[in-house]
């Protein structure tokens, strides 16, 4: 903890949420607008970086009580599974489809299987960036 | 038919027995392993004997088993006169050598299983060489003989000389073997077959091919290295470090004759060409002279025998060379004189195997019973070792060419052949032909001389017990059997040479000169007594001059040339070996400098030169196209900023400046992405640039202070040239590629399909996760690997004490 960085820490508390929400938006919007798993993940990682700069790495670790390496593995697994699943429908590896559904609250919404793959990308990229920076940072 | 015949089994049976020998050695310790080995060559010898009637009728036994049929490689075994002659030599002398080795090698002290495995390996390989019709199979067995020979030479592998000898023989024979392979491949290119018989059938096509001379030279190189012809003979004296049974078997009777076999086998294909005639005759006669001159200088019994083997092989080679003229004149004119050369070659081949085998074994007995082979220490053994003395006397007399032994006959016939050489009337023989009898005669004098030296130094004179570590006595009976058999063969063949002529020499000659099969000239008849002719006078001259030289030995032993035992050509070999290893190291050291910059310069220089050359060569440089997109002012501004940033990176004095400039470059690129309407790229570029700059900062935090290394002027110039080269190359390449666009882009497909088929408006993302999701999958895998790598490097470093 850096006790004197009051302004920074207060701003961070507000800003981190905005960044995370923005990153979610970028992530989900990727199918139709600029964005997607990669950029979304980098932006989310930046939010955690901001927290770790204002507070310290320990705080971030408390916020995400899972090992980054596990997240990385889970992300890769999701991406691979999303590729393998089409096999059960007699399709090729990484075959994608989409359709429109009437969801409560959201109305007529397009859901694409590509999103599952993108979730994998998203998790891997977050975990990689944070793992790299924290591994190097902790060595200090 | 895909069935192994008895002949196939016979060929590979030594290899099969070699597998079993170690087990026998392990479980039957009380009996000498050699007894189990002995059975096989004896059976094989009897088996091959039964082909004699068939083969002497002019019939050929041939069986084929496909091995790699798609490549035309078949395990063809094939028995004609020549094959049978060699097969009988291999198995016959093989049996005697195994018998001899049983008494020669100690059951307790030696690792017998190794010895017999190598020996059987050799025997099988040698049988394969002489019985194969397919050249690739022949080559396979050929290399196996080299390998087995090297293993046998280095049998006492704890001695450095053994290892060096094995290395030398291996290097030289394998060098020849490879060149032979090249020759074989050339022949198969011409004839489209690997079968020797089919090649012989196409001899006319081969003779008219432009590959004729190269193929011939390559194959001859193989034959000359194996048969220890000048100047490749240097491995043979060093191979004398092998146990004596090995020297007797490999390095006198069988392996060194593989080259002779090859030359004889290829005579129907190449014979008749002037090049073949001259190369073989010349190398043979030079080897003959050189071997006999060098043998005189040796002080070691086996050394003398090694050089004498070289010399005798040269003799046989000369005869084969002269005899190859038979194929030039097939119309009957003077055929008998060329044919006589081939007959003599085959006859002397048999004779040499008998007397040289017995001489080696006698030398081994002397070594075994006295503990030394040095002729300066030996002396007066005549009464102590009477049987060895007798055998040596017979062998040496035969080698020197004295009556009534078989060596006399072959020497007389040899003289006849070389004397007739002037009468050939072909290949300019009338001018140079005179040299052959002269050289042959001189060589014979020296042959007589070293035989005399070997005999008198070993067996006569005064016996000095102080020279020997052991109590000297005659060898046990078992050790004497084999040389006795060979020595009696020397006498038998001397008195009754015609028992060989019809049964084996004639079919062998037919194999070498097949067109004479039904010819009236082919009537091998060898007489002891030719009448008073030039040959006899030459022999008398040899004896007289040889005796004079021997009596004058006290005078010329003081000459410095006599004292040097080692062949001068060894210096060439040693120099080459040392030169290759030091030269190779120097060459590697000259460019492998463990300097990363140096390697980058090599890589970039290669790229610039190669790619630049290809671009000029293919004429693809196109710098001034018709259509460029219009260049806007803000684009120019941005480029100027980037150039400034790039220059700053290069010339900055501190790391931080460089880093900041690098960051500015990254952001400028992001702006370019914006300008060129790539929002996803721009976003990613911005974030990645930020994160990587952060990482750079983290790293720089730990680095020691920036030390400016000042390169030397020349290396700065080189770096500058290479960097400019790369820059210019990439620029020219990019512009040219842009201007040489031959096909429309795929982009239209993605524009249409991204919404209709994948349901997304963001085409970039649809490509990334849908159309080409496969790439993305592995890119995130790459990221994961990088992260784990960084983690492992930082956290997983092994502490000093853990090592």
Detail the topology: elements first, then pairings.
The complex is a heterodimer of chains A (140) and B (803).
Chain A: H1 6-29, H2 37-54, H3 57-63, H4 68-84, E1 98-103, E2 107-112, H5 114-139
Antiparallel strand pairs in A: 1-2
Helix pairs in contact in A: 1-2, 2-3, 2-5, 4-5
Chain B: H1 6-27, H2 33-49, H3 52-56, E1 61-68, E2 73-79, H4 81-104, H5 112-131, H6 135-153, H7 160-191, H8 196-201, H9 203-208, H10 212-226, H11 235-238, H12 244-253, H13 258-270, H14 274-297, H15 301-323, H16 335-370, H17 386-400, H18 406-420, H19 429-432, H20 435-459, H21 477-495, H22 498-512, H23 534-551, H24 553-556, H25 560-563, H26 569-591, H27 596-618, H28 633-651, H29 655-675, H30 679-702, H31 713-739, H32 747-756, H33 763-771, H34 773-795
Antiparallel strand pairs in B: 1-2
Task: Summarize the structure in words.
- The complex is a heterodimer of chains A (140) and B (803).
- Chain A is mainly alpha-helical.
- Chain A is 66% helix and 9% strand.
- Chain A has 5 helices and 2 strands.
- Chain A has a two-stranded antiparallel ribbon.
- In chain A, helix 2 packs across helix 3 and helix 2 (37-54) runs parallel beside helix 5 (114-139).
- The radius of gyration of chain A is 18 Å and the shape is globular.
- Chain B is mainly α and 803 residues long.
- In chain B, 71% of the residues lie in helices and 2% in strands.
- Chain B is built from 34 helices and 2 strands.
- Chain B has helices at residues 6-27, 33-49, 52-56, 81-104, 112-131, 135-153, 160-191, 196-201, 203-208, 212-226, 235-238, 244-253, 258-270, 274-297, 301-323, 335-370, 386-400, 406-420, 429-432, 435-459, 477-495, 498-512, 534-551, 553-556, 560-563, 569-591, 596-618, 633-651, 655-675, 679-702, 713-739, 747-756, 763-771, 773-795; strands at residues 61-68, 73-79.
- A two-stranded antiparallel ribbon of chain B has the order 1-2.
- The mean pLDDT of chain B is 84.
- The chains are: A mainly alpha (140), B mainly alpha (803).
- Chain A binds chain B through residues 26, 30-39, 42-43, 45-46, 49, 68-69, 72-73, 75-76, 79-80, 83, 93-94, 96, 98, 110, 112, 114, 117-118, 120-121, 124-125, 127-129, 131-133, 135-137, 139-140, and chain B through 679-680, 683-684, 687-688, 690-691, 694-695, 698-699, 701-702, 758-762, 764-766, 768-770, 773-774, 776-777, 780-781, 783-784, 786-788, 790-791, 794-795.
């Amino acid at each position: 903890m850096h006790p004197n960085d009051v302004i920074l820490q207060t701003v961070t508390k507000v800003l981190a949420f905005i960044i995370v929400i923005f990153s979610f938006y970028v992530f989900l919007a990727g199918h139709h607008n600029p964005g997607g798993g990669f950029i979304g993940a980098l932006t989310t990682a930046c939010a955690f970086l901001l927290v770790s700069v204002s507070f310290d790495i320990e705080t971030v670790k408390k916020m995400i009580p899972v090992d980054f390496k596990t997240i990385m593995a889970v992300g890769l697994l999701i991406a691979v599974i999303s590729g393998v699943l089409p096999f059960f429908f007699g399709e090729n590896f990484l075959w994608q489809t989409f359709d429109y559904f009437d969801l409560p609250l959201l109305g007529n919404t397009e859901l694409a299987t590509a999103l599952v793959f993108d979730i994998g990308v998203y998790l891997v990229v977050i975990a990689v960036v944070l793992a790299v920076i924290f591994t190097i940072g902790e060595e200090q | 038919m895909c069935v192994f015949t008895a002949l196939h089994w016979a060929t590979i049976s030594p290899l099969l027995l070699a597998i079993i020998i170690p087990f026998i050695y392990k479980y039957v310790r009380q009996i000498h392993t050699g007894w189990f080995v002995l059975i096989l060559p004896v059976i094989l010898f009897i088996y091959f004997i039964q082909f004699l009637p068939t083969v002497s009728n002019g019939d050929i036994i041939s069986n084929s088993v496909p091995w790699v049929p798609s490549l035309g490689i078949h395990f063809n075994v094939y028995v004609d006169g020549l094959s049978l002659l060699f097969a009988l030599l291999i198995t016959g002398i093989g049996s005697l050598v195994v018998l001899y080795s049983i008494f020669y090698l100690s059951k307790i002290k030696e690792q017998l299983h190794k010895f017999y495995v190598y020996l059987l390996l050799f025997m099988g390989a040698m049988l394969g060489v002489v019985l194969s019709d397919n050249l690739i199979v022949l080559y396979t067995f050929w290399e196996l003989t080299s390998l087995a020979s090297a293993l046998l030479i280095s049998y006492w592998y704890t001695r450095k000389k053994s290892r060096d000898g094995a290395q030398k023989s291996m290097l030289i024979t394998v060098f020849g073997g490879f060149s032979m392979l090249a020759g074989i491949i050339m022949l198969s290119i011409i004839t489209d077959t690997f079968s020797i018989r089919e090649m012989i059938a196409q001899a006319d096509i081969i003779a008219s091919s432009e590959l004729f001379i190269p193929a011939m030279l390559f194959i001859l190189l193989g034959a000359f290295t194996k048969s220890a012809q000048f100047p490749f003979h240097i491995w043979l004296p060093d191979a004398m470090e092998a146990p004596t049974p090995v020297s007797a078997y490999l390095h006198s009777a069988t392996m060194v004759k593989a080259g002779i076999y090859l030359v004889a086998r290829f005579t129907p294909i190449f014979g008749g060409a002037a090049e073949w005639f001259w190369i073989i005759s010349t190398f043979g006669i030079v080897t003959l002279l050189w071997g006999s001159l060098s043998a005189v200088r040796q002080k070691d019994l086996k050394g003398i025998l090694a050089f004498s083997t070289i010399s005798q092989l040269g003799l046989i080679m000369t005869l084969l060379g002269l005899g190859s003229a038979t194929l030039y004149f097939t119309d009957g004119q003077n055929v008998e004189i060329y044919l006589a050369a081939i007959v003599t070659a085959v006859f002397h081949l048999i004779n040499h195997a008998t007397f040289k085998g017995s001489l080696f074994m006698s030398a081994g007995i002397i070594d075994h019973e006295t503990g030394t082979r040095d002729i300066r220490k030996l002396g007066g053994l005549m009464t102590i070792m009477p049987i060895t003395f007798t055998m040596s006397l017979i062998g040496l007399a035969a080698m020197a060419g004295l009556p009534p032994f078989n060596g006399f006959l072959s020497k007389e016939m040899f003289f006849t052949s070389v004397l007739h050489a002037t009468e050939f009337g072909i290949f300019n023989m009338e001018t140079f032909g005179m040299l052959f009898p002269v050289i042959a005669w001189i060589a014979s004098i020296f042959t007589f001389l070293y035989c005399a030296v070997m005999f008198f130094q070993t067996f006569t004179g005064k016996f000095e017990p102080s020279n020997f570590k052991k109590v000297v006595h005659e060898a046990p009976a078992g050790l004497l059997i084999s040389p006795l058999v060979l020595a009696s063969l020397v006498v038998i063949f001397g008195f009754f040479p015609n028992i060989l002529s019809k049964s084996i020499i004639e079919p062998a000659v037919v194999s070498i000169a097949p067109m004479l099969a039904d010819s009236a000239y082919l009537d091998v008849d060898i007489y002891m007594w030719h009448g008073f002719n030039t040959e006899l006078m030459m022999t008398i001259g040899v004896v007289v001059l040889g005796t004079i030289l021997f009596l004058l030995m006290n005078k010329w032993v003081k000459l410095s040339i006599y004292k040097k035992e080692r062949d001068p050509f060894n210096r060439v070999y040693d120099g080459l070996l040392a030169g290759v290893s030091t030269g190779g190291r120097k060459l590697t050291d000259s460019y492998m400098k463990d300097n990363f910059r140096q390697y980058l310069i090599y890589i970039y220089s290669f790229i610039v030169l190669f790619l630049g050359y290809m671009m000029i060569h293919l004429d693809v440089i196109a710098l001034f196209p018709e259509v460029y997109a219009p260049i806007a002012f803000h684009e120019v501004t941005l480029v100027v900023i980037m150039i400034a940033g790039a220059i700053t990176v290069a010339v900055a004095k501190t790391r931080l400046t460089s880093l900041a400039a690098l960051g500015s470059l990254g952001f400028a690129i992001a702006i370019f992405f914006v300008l060129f309407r790539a929002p996803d790229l721009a976003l990613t570029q911005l974030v990645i640039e930020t994160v990587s700059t952060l990482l750079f900062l983290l790293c720089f935090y730990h680095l020691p202070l920036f030390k400016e290394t000042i390169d030397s002027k020349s290396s700065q110039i080189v770096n500058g040239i290479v960097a400019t080269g790369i820059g210019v190359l990439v620029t020219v390449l990019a512009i040219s590629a842009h201007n040489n666009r031959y096909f429309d882009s795929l982009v239209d497909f993605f524009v249409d399909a991204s919404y209709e088929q994948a349901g997304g408006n963001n085409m970039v993302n649809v490509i990334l996760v849908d159309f080409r999701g496969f790439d993305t999958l592995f890119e995130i895998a790459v990221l994961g690997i990088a992260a784990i790598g960084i983690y492992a490097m930082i956290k997983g470093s092994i502490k000093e004490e853990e090592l």
